[in-house]
Amino acid sequence: MVRDGGVKKKNGHASTSKGKGPVQAVQSAPKKGKAKGKGKKVKPNKARTENRCFTCNEVGHWRQNCPKRHEAGASLGPCNQGGIANLHKWEWVDRLSGLEQRADDVAKEFDEFLEGVIEEHLSKNVADDKGQDIVDILLEIQKTNTTGFTFERDLIKAITMDVFAGGTYTTFTNLEWAMTELRHPQAMKKMQQETQEIGQGRSMISEDDLYKMPYLRAIIKETLRLHPPLPLLIPHESTQDVKVLGYDIAAGTQVIVNAWAIGRDSSTWADPNEFQPERFLNSPIDYKGFHFELIPFGVGRRGCPGIHFAMIINELVFANLVYKFDFALDRRESLDMSETLGLTAQKKCPLLVTVTSCK
Predict the structure, then answer these.
(1) Binding residues for heme, per the UniProt record (predicted)?
(2) Which DSSP letter does residue 4 get?
(3) CA angle, corner 299, sides to 291 and 16, nearest 5?
């Protein structure tokens, strides 16, 4: 899906080399420009990830009716309505429909919200801090100037916004779809067996246990393949001329990647519309942007910056729900698998199940 740029076909049609599909073609396209600096291997923080919220550091405060939590959620709502089209500038159409004004209002609300978050972190007593969150780290980078360039407050707001907005609806959406796909009895049975073996009667599954749970990760991957949180990824713009599948894509072309279609491509996946977590058990394919067959969060330096934070929370919550409870659907009702129309593809009808404690 391409907009606003010059895209030309070779001899009136797209030419492809033998055995090379869209994924391989993109991988072999010219890659100019490299990220500066050496990458560092980062180990996951062993502190409870769900406590590392940038709006409220203390668990008790977050679990209460935190004003900032509800304030941010209310502002996020309009951003998800209307789908990918609302991310584009439609000039007079935007002004006529009132979309431009609504977008400006939401942007102003978020700017005020994030300004308050930053001020709260600047004024808090460091001695009473129970651990740094992402805003603390960004403020420390700004203070020490370790990046080598001007780290302005607007940049801190932008990064914080990306992590928060990107992790709110996408995390909830992926978790609900994963729970929905447990309607398959075999998947539920295998998942429960794995959590019981790892949990060994403890009160809960810990973050350190996640890396010993291959079937859990397989279910998450299969869920992301069938139900990517963003069916159409955030638009990107080409910085230089490039040729893909015989198409000349000019610099400045806006490109939208259809992650939903990639995940259901029959030339890549066997039985693409079937829920089969086992396909990932002996496969190196992951969702972190290194394999073009599965890119629910984008790829490269422009991929989702909060992917690790969001997915650890997702896996931890999912594992503990299955570890602690049994879930059953109402036999009198069929499960509605339809999706909503929006930036994120949520279930049109919320998942309703009967929950009982595991014996």
Answers:
(1) 304
(2) S
(3) 65
Q: Assign 197 to helix, strand or coil.
A: helix
Report the distance separating Cα 331 and Cα 334, nearest Å: 7
Query: What sign results for the dihedral spanned by CA atoms 281, 284, 289, 294?
Result: negative
Q: Which residues of 75-109 are buried (b: 16+ CB within 10 A; e: fewer)?
A: bbeebbeebbebeeeeeeebeeeebbebbeebeeb
Using CA atoms, how far apart are residues 65 and 70, in angstroms rounded to an integer? 8
pTM: 0.70
Q: Cα dist. 141→44, 53, 129, 350 in Å? A: 20, 18, 18, 41
User: Concatenated DSSP letters for 86-153?
Assistant: GGS--THHHHHHTHHHHHHHHHHHHHHHHHHHHHHHHHS-GGG-SS--HHHHHHHHHHHTTTSS---H
> What is the mean pLDDT of each successive set of 10 residues along the chain, which is 359 residues long?
43 38 43 38 35 38 46 52 52 63 80 88 66 82 80 86 72 89 92 94 92 95 93 88 91 91 94 96 89 89 77 91 88 78 81 83
Is 66 marked as binding a ligand? Answer: no
Specify the pairing of strand 354-357 against strand 325-328. Answer: antiparallel
Query: Residue 2 phi/psi, 5° resolution?
Result: -130, 140
